[in-house]
Amino acid sequence: MDEKNYYTVLGVDKKATTDEIKKSFRKLAQKYHPDRNQGDKTAENKFKEVSQAYEVLSDPEKRRKYDLGAFSDFRGGASQGEAGAGFSWNDWFGGAQQGNSGFGRSQGGMNDFFGGDTGGGDIFDKIFGNKRRSSARAKRGEDVQVNLEISLDDAYNGVTKKVIVDAQTIEIKLKPGIETGQVLKIPKKGKAGRFGGNNGDLLITVYVRPHNYFERTGNDLKVNLSIDIYTAILGGSTRLTTFAGTIAVNIPALSQQGKVLMLKGLGMPKYTSTSSRGDLYVTLNVQMPTSLTDKERKLFQDLKKLASK
Fold it and tell me: What is d(CA 126, CA 138) in angstroms, rounded to the nearest whole number?
């Protein structure tokens, strides 16, 4: 490394306090960290540069010598180091394993900035990606969470949907009976791993839209069915369109307003066993006539007389 002004490298005044130096280094180290700039040699060199400057200025004794102009005391020959002309990482950080200087010490070191698990002498394997990069720990990629909205029809029949994650289209097959809030995990379809680590997972949270007519409760369905007063009194059959098709519903004679009929096995498929289904509950809504002919009125009056005898 060239004889650059360490204060200028860190962007601080020569009279800066230790806290000010530390704060500036933290900001620059995060900016140029190799993990954030993979493959960028300029950023990597800049990271090494600010690290070297911080290593000197954060140590009171080294800073005092540096301020006195003893720059040569802090750099090794070009043949010794890996960072470039006139600089030796071993000179600067070789003492880390002993904990007496450099990144290994308890105050002002890299452990303050990068989680405290740098592993002493292996720090540059994990940060700079140098010749020993192969020893860096594999890191699993992040999971990706996606919300997927479907209709109740889709939930009843099952459906195939496509979601786009990081510019890639992934086809998702949803089994019949899936419910709101259910989370599907698609292994290794999340963010890419690093240093040979596995990809994260794709987590899909399903939301089933409310239906205009049917209400779902678990695996059961509920629906209102309007019938006329004559069918309610005399009984009969009426048609009802369900997810399984149009069916005939038998109405018992003298059915009251709000009577509930249970149609077994006509509810939602069970997600864990689609051969089994919930039930369909039909609530009868008796519709009163809005007008009567003279003949109809007379008939009702005759019925009233018969009922009062």
Answer: 10
> For residue 126, how far is the Cα from the chain centroid?
27
Range 6-135 has CATH code 1.10.287.110: yes
E strand spans, the chain: 144-150, 159-165, 168-174, 183-186, 202-208, 215-217, 220-228, 236-242, 245-251, 260-263, 269-270, 273-277, 280-287
In which residue ranges of the chain is CATH 2.60.260.20 found?
Answer: 144-208, 215-308
Q: Which CATH architecture has domain 144-208?
A: Sandwich (2.60)
Residue 61, classed as helix, strand or coil, is helix
CA 282 – CA 247 distance, rounded (Å): 12
Length of the chain: 309
**Per-block mean pLDDT, blocks of 10 residues, the chain (309 long):** 78 91 90 84 89 90 84 46 38 40 40 44 45 66 94 97 89 95 94 91 96 97 97 96 95 97 96 91 96 93 88
- Residues 169, 206 contacting (CB under 8 angstroms): no
CATH of 215-308, one of 1.10.287.110, 3.30.930.10, 2.60.260.20, 3.40.630.30: 2.60.260.20
Q: Which residues contact 138 (CB under 8 A, 6 or more apart)?
A: 193, 194, 195, 196, 197, 198
The span from the CA of 123 to the CA of 204, in Å, is: 37
